[in-house]
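Morning, I've got a small favour to ask if you have a moment. I owe you a coffee for this, so here goes:

…
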Amino acid sequence: MILTPGSRIAQYEVLSTIGAGGMGEVYRARDPRLGRDVAIKVMAPHVAADPEMRRRFETEARAIAALSHSSIVAIHELAFVDDLPVAVMELLEGQTLRQHMKAGPIEWREAARIGAMIADGLAAAHARGIVHRDLKPENVFLTTDGAVKILDFGLALRRHVMPGTSSEGPTVAPTAAHVILGTFGYMAPEQVTGDPVDARTDIFALGCILYEMVSARPRFSGATPQEIVAQLLHDSGRHLTAIDALGPREFSAVVGRCTERAASARFESAADVAMALRALQSGSPLTIAAAEARRSKPKGKSLAVLPFVNSGADPSTEFLTNGITENIINSLSQISGLRVVPRSLVFRYQGPQDPSTIGAALNARLILTGRVSQQGDYLTIQAELVDTVSESQIWGDQFRPKLTELANVQQDIAWQITEALRLKLTGAQKKKLRRRATVNPEAYQEYLRGRHFFNSWSPDGFRRALQHFERAMDLDPTYAPSYSGFGDTVGCMTYYGLIPPQDGFPRAQAAARKAISLDPELADAYATLGMGELFFEWNWPAAEQNFLKSIALNPNVATVRAFHALMLATSGRHEESIAEARHGRQLDPLSPLVNMSVGWALFFAGRLKEAIDELIQVRKILLGEANHEAGSVIIVAHEALGRFEEAARLASGTTCFGIPLDGNALLRAWREGGARGYWQERLAQLQRATLPPSLGHYNTGVVLSQIGRLDDAISELEALVADRHGGPVFFGVDPTLAPLRGHPRFEALLTRIGAPRSPTVSAPHTTRR
């Protein structure tokens, strides 16, 4: 069946041909019902005539349909048209990993990021009892937005019971004994010998892919299949050290363990591989096996509080388990002499986990685990503290509080841990841990729900958090954390432009002051005051005083360090700013806000090349809004350096601070009209965009200043000051506004907002023709 643009298959309108393979044709089509484009895979008639190939096609569709994961291509529908199998699938934009590898070796951090996402998808498949059996670079797709998708489950096998999982299910693709299926060079030894396969077979293939990504050559190769098999079955693995020069020793250790000949010697699960690779990405020291973990004892007392497991069947009570975990982390992180792994790292490990594996990945000797179940008005909380080096339990207890007592049982757990570890506490720390909360039980649960949604760090999450914090304040007007949570949320929403500054910052500050009046030791409330003083009041001394007070009360909150770093940058204290931002990242290496603060600190210091390098790494680690923000700063930094071709190339098909950019038009404008032509085109694209006032005025001011329309640029910036937006705090240090420095109106504007002057920022170099 050959389809042409404009023809229809079922309800889908064919738009174009994507490609062809041995199984048939793939088309781009439009689904008018849902208003989305899809990929349609149509089996070729001569292939469909082969019962085995037809079965394989249908097997792939059923295997993918059984899965739902961001790292696995989604299938929407399996149909038959003119007796030919047709699979309607998620449309992917990008290229296969094989195509990407043709450009040469991949930097090890990027290889680790890709590998971890492949491992995530495999873990989801294995949890459903599905083994891929043909994982290779051709079957891994890299999308243009940084996602990784596993393709082609045509050889997928569903087993009844798989190591490391409890999944059961009917066999999807049965294989006769001693039949070889897969691709030479990626097949595990048990595939080559025709022995039974399981999840560890896919882990072997993943190890081969990791090796090939960084070295640009196959892990096992030969002129004939026989040569490949001989190398596979007799290779000693000594040449793995050759990739040490391309990445850390621990990376080659991960590859080595994945590609062990004996399946029992490999990682137990794909989830463990993902953990190991992310530990490398985040800079955590990595040990590969429990024996190595024992030999590389983490220094000092280091603790990871894993997310408590919800043993009940009701997912709506997840806020309870997350809230218990977070409050224990917050209580223990304030104790000197104890390193507590930040929330963003431990919350990646949801569900039952092996403490030794996680301890090695997070460089934490101590692991606290817990399970929570609810029976009526009572909770049963089972907690256990394990030493991952000696693999022994240090402490364990069961608590059975009423829901009305939940606020205090978390403090009890934290206190008992300090006792078990014989930590030396100050009098103030003891008093704080032993203090009993008096809070309305319903208000406390609303507070936990608010924190649960706040931690999603998304516009919708912020809005839902506000509703719960408001209910908590209504139910118990004396509970200080509810006011602090409300102020924190409103402050963040205002900072990100979701609430007008005249409305948001005063409400946030009022809530923070109320929280402090009820409890003068709430660190979060002082940070909220600091944000308002900086971004709304433009009062640098008051802002610093509040940030330092918050840090003194709890020095381990990375987000406060990030905002303090921004305050230091706007004061022109750039070395202090960079050091503070990096300190924050050490505390919380996966926080989007904290990672961006390092890039911004370098950017405002005028160290633009370093900022670009830093933010390239951020984009490899983080997805979502942080990825877009990092990309925007990279583009602007290239522009400030006069690298207009590079900026145009990066701008193609993306946005820069919300402005849709046409990279091809920018490139033409640069080549035809030099820097001025580039900025004229940039202005035209900006004027076509619909932006909130905070972004619109600031971006227009920057572009107009580059064109030389200085008075018009200053008028745009004056509008920001008139409406008391947060952007003016950056005027004095933003390299892209350098053309305005020395202009009387611009200097008057800086004086009006009381901005500290930075003598270190000079006009960036731009190339003109």
Remarks:
- Confidence is low (pLDDT under 50) at residues 159-180, 284-299, 760-769.
- The two ends are 55 Å apart (CA to CA).
